[in-house]
Design goal:
Blueprint (H helix, E strand, L loop, with lengths): L21 H12 L14 H4 L10 E4 L9 H16 L3 E6 L9 H13 L5 E2 L2 E2 L1 E3 L4 H13 L3 E4 L3 H7 L17 H12 L9 E4 L14 E5 L13 E3 L1 H11 L4 E5 L6 H13 L9 E5 L3 E2 L6 H9 L14 H7 L3 H11 L7 E2 L1 H15 L2 E2 L1 E2 L2 E6 L7 E7 L9 E7 L1 E5 L19 E4 L4 E8 L4 E6 L17 E3 L1 E3 L4 E8 L24 E8 L11 E4 L3 E5 L11 E6 L11
Parallel strand pairs: 1-2, 2-5, 10-11, 12-13, 14-27, 16-22, 20-23, 25-29
Antiparallel strand pairs: 3-4, 6-7, 7-8, 8-9, 15-26, 16-19, 17-18, 19-24, 20-21, 21-22, 25-26, 27-28, 28-29
Helix pairs in contact: 3-12, 8-9, 12-13
The chain binds adenosine-5'-triphosphate and magnesium ion (MG).
Length: 596
């Protein structure tokens, strides 16, 4: 079993047993009623006329994952990715990857590339019925602009010329209704002319905005004539200088969904109050004949909050810029690039997403739930190896100098079909420092003078002493106790320790990672979240590894017996000289002395 786990052929995304939830119920009831079954699909996103007369939409449902390309994806995004792509797979639908790049200032190609890589790494793709559903919201700017003109013409939008402060003053509050702007009664002709001049660059930023005309007295502040287009004299990463007016997110998003034939637009709870505007807008645009009916529907779910990390791009950017970590892909970062380098697996994330499910109420998920999912998957796929992380020498006094033998060691205790490998054994071995005690504490049953232990897969040895000058533990072995030979079990011992032959060992850098923050809710109250960083989140050791590990290739994962799951670092490993990262310990040991 030396085959690399990274190089094994990719299995198709496994369908995990699915639990019913309010999103699945909504989809199933829409499928049963045929709500979206009359929709047609013209082969690409577009206005009603793109789809008119086209064949029935081959996708039973359409969902989308719509990141703003302004940072690296984090574990919270993984929940959304697994949800959206997972539902599409489950219901014979399609999930679109859409870059929500309507804000010209913050977006960069670097982020676009990293997002594409992260979604692929999680095991999903955006192909359906022969087409790739990878889209950019900025491709819809022409349509959005045209739809805004139609809203103006039909009396549903107007250009307001108040300053931002004046507008805020008229907006009212949760308890007071807002007041109408004096410009609200502008004629459609005048608004249209101003809107065109806005587009033509005739005004400064902030001089005018286009607002939807809804209801300044609505109890929902989002319906008090929200701004839908603003002037921004900024170059866009894809459209360059073509535009100096850009749509607001709340206006752009429903339109993007509609143009792409999305049926179920899943978003986090903070958008719940936006849903009435989402519906209002699409109804008006549909009335103008610009989009297909029925329009998509927005369904909200609780965002993932995970203890011991921060899941906000803004804060993650701070960690990188303030050099609190080594970069976006530092294995301690809750980014997907970080998690990947740490040795976390796509399968582990999918299991996590299914296990935490979706809910309508915000709550916190314990970080240990994610670690358990990673352990579960790694236990299943990681071959076992022996590694001594904190080495001390063990000399077997009665073992002949120069002699070597090979011990048969199973690659996975529960998977006999993974076979065995041969691990060299000799007179001088490395063992873990904590597996020897000159003065054993109570209940200690590993090596101490006079006590016997089994060297896993090898012999029973009895400790004869410790030589402080050479820092060497001494012992004698019983030649009749070799594992796997008749009578090997005649000597009963309590301790069973791992070892590596000193002559054959491969010395390697191993990084032991721990949680990035020392408290469950970093930055709670008024504290700066940086104050909660765990200053012990990384320890670097030189370990002694069994020889087979010397050939590990980047991203190959193993269980180091008794220690946990480790991955060959994808950035720093060199052929023949791997560097290992600890993904997760064997058991949840956080707060319990932190030993594996
Ligand atoms: P952040 O708050 O970190 O800046 P964001 O919501 O601004 O994230 P987007 O790029 O807009 O990031 O997010 C893309 C998608 O990922 C959205 O549909 C959003 O709902 C979802 N998402 C972001 N964070 C989480 C989270 N913590 N849990 C679940 N879904 C999330
Ligand atoms: Mg966002």
């Amino acid at each position: 079993m030396s085959e690399s786990s990274a190089a094994r052929p990719k299995k198709p995304v496994a369908q995990l047993p699915s639990h019913s939830n309010f999103i699945r119920s909504a989809i199933e009831s829409d499928l049963a009623s045929g709500k979206y079954s009359a929709r047609t699909w013209g082969g690409k996103p577009g206005a009603a006329k793109t789809h008119e007369g086209a064949p029935k939409d081959p996708a039973k449902i359409r969902t989308r994952f719509p990141p703003e390309p302004n940072g690296y994806l984090h574990i919270g995004h993984a929940k959304s990715i697994c949800l959206n792509f997972g539902l599409a797979l489950e219901y014979a639908g399609a999930c679109h990857l859409r870059f929500d790049d309507t804000n010209p200032e913050t977006e960069e190609q670097e982020y676009v590339d990293s997002i594409i890589a992260a979604v692929k790494w999680l095991g999903y793709n955006w192909e359906n019925a022969g087409s790739a559903h990878l889209y950019y919201a900025s491709d819809y700017f022409d349509f959005m602009y045209h739809a805004a003109e139609c809203l103006i013409e039909s009396g549903h939008a107007y250009v307001d010329s108040l300053s931002a402060e004046q507008m805020r003053a008229l907006r009212g509050s949760l308890t007071e209704p807002g007041k109408e702007s004096p410009y609200r009664s502008r004629s459609p002709e005048e608004s249209l002319k101003l809107f065109h001049q806005m587009r033509d660059g005739k005004f400064k930023e902030g001089e005018h905005v286009l607002r939807a005309k809804i209801d300044m007295t609505s109890p929902n502040i989002n319906l008090r004539d929200p701004a839908i287009y603003r002037i921004r004299k900024a170059a866009h990463h894809r459209t360059g200088d073509k535009w100096c007016v850009y749509p607001m997110y709340t206006y752009a998003h429903p339109i993007e969904d509609a143009l792409e034939n999305i049926t179920h637009s899943l978003c986090t709870l903070e958008f719940e109050d936006q849903r009435p505007f989402y519906d209002w807008l699409l109804e008006r645009v549909a009335q103008d004949g610009l989009i297909q009916r029925p329009p998509p529907q927005q369904i909200e779910f609780a965002r993932l909050n995970l203890t011991y990390v921060v899941l906000s791009k803004r804060r993650l950017i701070q960690l990188v810029e303030e050099k609190r970590v080594d970069g976006w892909d530092d294995p301690r970062m809750p980014t997907l690039v970080g998690a990947r380098r740490r040795g976390y697996t796509p399968e582990g994330f999918r299991l996590f997403a299914e296990r935490i499910g979706v809910s309508k109420a915000d709550s916190w998920i314990e970080y240990s739930v994610l670690e358990d999912c990673m352990r579960e998957h790694l236990n299943d796929v990681a071959p076992r190896r022996m590694a001594v992380l904190d080495p001390v020498k063990l000399v077997i006094e009665n073992y002949p100098e120069g002699r070597e033998e090979l011990c048969e060691v199973p690659n996975h205790p529960q998977k006999p079909d993974w076979g065995k490998r041969r691990v060299p054994f000799s007179r001088e071995l490395w063992i873990e420092r904590e597996d020897f005690a000159e003065q054993p504490p109570k209940g200690y049953f590993r090596l101490y003078p006079g006590n016997k232990v089994r060297l896993r897969y090898g012999y029973v040895v009895e400790c004869t002493g410790y030589d402080g000058a050479t820092n060497t533990v001494r012992c004698r072995y019983d030649p009749d106790t070799r594992s796997g030979t008749p009578g090997a079990e005649k000597v009963k011992v309590k301790g069973n320790i791992h070892w590596v032959s000193a002559k054959h060992a491969c010395a390697a850098e191993v990084r032991l990672y721990d949680r990035l923050f020392k408290v469950p809710h970093p930055g709670a109250g008024d504290r700066a979240f940086q104050a909660d960083l765990n200053t012990d989140s990384r320890a670097v050791v030189t370990a002694q590894l069994e020889p087979a590990l010397g050939g590990a290739v980047a991203e190959e994962r193993f269980q180091f017996e008794r220690h946990g799951y480790f991955v060959a670092d994808m950035r720093d490993s060199k052929p023949g000289a791997p560097v290992f990262n600890r993904a997760v310990t064997l058991r949840d040991s956080w707060g319990a002395g932190k030993t594996a």
